[in-house]
Design a protein that fits this description.
Strand content: 5-15%
Number of domains: 2
Shape: globular
Oligomer: single chain
Radius of gyration: 20 Å
CATH topology of the largest domain: D-Maltodextrin-Binding Protein, domain 2
Length: 333
């Protein structure tokens, strides 16, 4: 299925030689973590900064393509120029393309958001993750490789030892956030818990029967990058001005969200449809745990864990090994 999507995108976007004038960016899986992309699209910020740099007319094609696996395939097949994802999916792709023999070399452009994820439940017997039983199912965006899957593995390793790192994997099922919200609130599909992110977390917590028993910040020991943007070294080398325009557009979008939360909330409500109101989204944006920043946070904790678990073969020396130089002055981790 993914191969068919990628081939279709490749046929639609194939072009001849010369400098790139079209930039192709998937809008991601939705939710607050991808809000900067929506602001960049609505206000044509990439086009603005490209024009200011003297590149000339640049067409930005925002593609409705979500899910880290499909986006990774699109980037590697040159059907997309930039993609956004969480740290585990990014690290997997960085590792796959890492090394001097590889001409692709995917690296991070910048972080996009930092925010917690929340393990929510309505099951009376679940007071903590350790109380899970064979009758329980935990909804996550993707089994084994998503942020919540890795977080639970890190929790298990710390509490039960390296041999038990995957002890909670068997309880997880893959489910998109909107579907998981419905399943948890209704009690359908046997879902007793959902590892959720804003604003889906806030939707669930409006139900008085739902409570939070663990957060990613608890496990990571503080604020952690939730979504980030990456591209290939080939694209950056061949299109330095467009690369710079994308980074500047991201930074401006983040400033706009912080400065005008009602505007940002309206964009998200329009894009997502249903769910929370503008005022409820503004309340989420006012949460100090929700940050829009290009500074990578706690990437190395993910990298160290995934390297130790054998999920990646290359061990970065620092977070700067994962990102292109333009962001190296940030106080990353």
């Amino acid at each position: 299925m993914r191969l068919g999507i990628v081939l279709a995108l490749a046929l639609l976007t194939a072009c001849g030689g010369g400098r790139t004038r079209e930039v192709r960016i998937p809008k991601g899986a939705g939710g607050l973590g991808f809000l900067p992309l929506l602001v960049m699209e609505k206000y044509r910020l990439i086009e603005k900064h490209a024009a200011e740099s003297g590149v000339g007319d640049v067409t930005v094609r925002w593609m409705d393509l979500g899910g880290p696996a499909a986006m990774n395939d699109a980037l590697l097949s040159s059907s997309a120029d930039f993609i956004s994802a969480g740290p585990p999916a990014f690290l997997t792709l960085w590792d796959k393309t890492h090394g001097p023999a590889n001409s692709v070399n995917v690296e991070g452009v910048a972080a996009m958001t930092s925010m917690p994820m929340y393990l929510n439940t309505r099951a009376e017997h679940l007071k903590k993750l350790d109380d899970i039983t064979d009758q329980d199912k935990i909804a996550v965006t993707s089994i084994k490789v998503s942020i919540p899957a890795i977080i639970m593995q890190m929790y298990a390793k710390e509490k039960y030892g390296p041999a038990q790192a995957t002890r909670f994997d068997k309880f997880t099922v893959s489910m998109a956030h909107p579907d998981a919200v419905v399943a948890l609130l209704s009690g359908a599909a046997g879902i007793s818990a959902h590892f959720s992110s804003p604003p889906f977390h806030q939707r669930e917590r409006k139900d008085p029967h739902i409570r939070t028993i663990l957060t990613s910040d608890d496990v990571m020991g503080g604020s952690t990058t939730f979504t980030m943007i990456s591209t290939t070294s080939k694209f950056r080398q061949e299109n330095p001005q467009i690369y710079a325009a994308v980074l500047k557009a991201l930074e401006e979008a983040q400033r706009m969200i912080v400065a005008d939360k009602k505007m940002a909330a309206d964009i998200l409500v329009t894009s997502e449809g249903g769910g929370l109101t503008r005022d409820e989204i503004v309340e989420v944006l006012n949460d100090p745990h929700v940050k829009f920043t290009t500074t990578p946070e706690n990437l190395m904790k993910y990298a160290e864990f995934m390297y130790g678990a054998g999920s990646i073969k290359n061990r970065p020396g620092s977070w700067k090994d994962l990102f292109f130089p333009e962001i190296h002055n940030a106080p990353g981790s």
